[in-house]
């Protein structure tokens, strides 16, 4: 990740730059964010560092209430988790500040996809793995974030 790419992520989280003065600047800033999101999404499966960057984007999108990005994340995060659960949870364990956002998006996947009834079985089936690979307080935070989506 380049310094410029890192700046785009941090700027979106902390709002370091002034708000764009016109639509053209605003659109440009959004396109920078979208490019970073797409790059992170497409490379998340490549290794732990790329997955950690993706998790940070999940965190930023949730913290800044970026509805369009969080909706996309909700659609794709469970398939990413299912691809390699152990790596997913291991990277998450090393980034505890990101756990609530990532686990919340895992849970929201089921409401976005109209699969609310499947959330319970997802939690039941995956809680032992979550407890195994996340430190105890992190595991509880993740399970709590998943549980909040139960209807």
Descriptive tags:
151 residues; mainly alpha; 8 helices
Compact summary:
By secondary structure, the chain is an all-alpha fold. The chain has one domain. Helix content is 79%, strand content 0%.
Basic shape: globular
Q: Given the helix and strand composition, which structural class is it? A: mainly alpha
Structural domain count: 1
Can you give the helix content as a percent range?
Answer: over 70%
Distance N to C terminus: 39 Å
Proportion in β-strands: under 5%
Uncertain runs are none
Instruction: Work out the helix count.
Output: 8
Q: Give the ordered list of helices and strands.
A: HHHHHHHH
Strand count, sense and closure of the main sheet?
A: none
**Mean pLDDT rating:** 84
Radius of gyration using CA atoms only:
16 Å
Q: How many β-strand stretches?
A: 0
Describe what you observe in this structure:
By secondary structure, the protein is an all-alpha fold. It has one domain (3-147). The protein contains 8 helices and no strands. α1 (3-14) runs parallel beside α3 and α7 (116-133) packs antiparallel against α8. The longest helix has 21 residues, at 23-43.
